[in-house]
Design brief:
265 residues, Alpha-Beta Plaits, disordered C terminus
Length: 265
């Protein structure tokens, strides 16, 4: 099964939020009361009932005015996913498409994934004591359908397909745009399965890390210390086995001593 990638071209996005609504509809995510905070962005952040969000920003246009920029925010589906590394129950896992799936029934609500994700994506639901996030519409992918958000996009800002093909499209688009346009997502955390074409440098965008990485503490424990601890545990088992072969089982009944004493009397 070839790796699949979702491509988001911010230069084609009108922030209609059709993708945001389609995500809620397909995943039957309930709405919650929100309040006007002086921005069209709604809700203010990702939530356990909002797995993807269009972020609105106003930045300087360089001529004394302002211009709007938009960004689709959701799980980036990292190839080297910190959330998968730290999940103790197997609730977070890699799918056959290379994306990161979530089995809510296995989730124990430990929140380890929340503290390790470089994109701050997973959200905790107090009512269910579970974590929630975008799973790239795995149920649709598994039935040869594209993600609901891609299906709903009216401008072609969202595309979905084989990884190599999507990357070619992304870099061709950046060449066409020139200037500060760039591809984001293919060079960090092993590469992500949601790729951006951004007209501005990554540092301009709200809540988008310039150089996302798996936390060093996660690497140290999962990639270095844990294998060593397993190796040490294996050594103890092997040593115990050889001790048994050489010395035999330990007799703790005391029967042998009593027999020898009885014979002497």
């Amino acid at each position: 099964m070839s790796e699949k990638v979702k491509l988001y071209d911010a230069t084609k996005c009108t922030a209609c939020r059709g993708c945001q609504l389609a995500c809620k509809q397909w995943n039957t995510l309930p709405a919650k009361q929100t309040y006007n905070r002086g921005s069209y962005q709604n809700p203010p952040d990702l939530q356990s009932n909002t797995w993807m969000l269009i972020r609105f920003q106003e930045i300087s246009n360089g001529n004394g005015g302002v211009k709007w920029i938009f960004r689709k925010d959701a799980c980036m589906h990292c190839t080297d996913a910190a959330c998968v590394k730290v999940c103790p129950s197997g609730a977070l896992f890699y799918t056959k498409f290379g994306t990161v799936g979530l089995d809510a029934e296995k989730c124990i609500g430990c929140k380890e994934c929340m503290s390790s994700c470089p994109f701050e994506v997973p959200r905790y639901d107090k009512e269910t004591d579970k974590i929630a996030k975008c799973d790239m519409c795995f149920s649709r992918l598994d039935n040869d359908l594209i993600p609901a958000c891609v299906k709903a996009c009216p401008t072609g800002a969202l595309q979905f397909g084989d990884k190599d093909e999507m990357l070619k499209i992304a870099y061709k688009r950046v060449d066409e745009l020139g200037g500060t346009a760039n591809v984001y997502g293919d060079k960090f955390v092993g590469g992500t399965h949601m790729i951006y074409v951004l007209p501005e440098k990554p540092g301009i965008y709200d809540r988008l890390p310039e150089k996302p990485a798996v936390p060093l503490t996660v690497i140290a424990w999962k990639d270095w210390l844990k294998p060593l601890s397993l190796l040490a545990a294996g050594g103890v088992i092997v040593g115990s086995f050889f001790h048994y072969l050489i010395h035999g089982p330990k007799d703790t009944s005391g029967g042998g001593d009593q027999a020898s004493q009885g014979g002497g009397e």
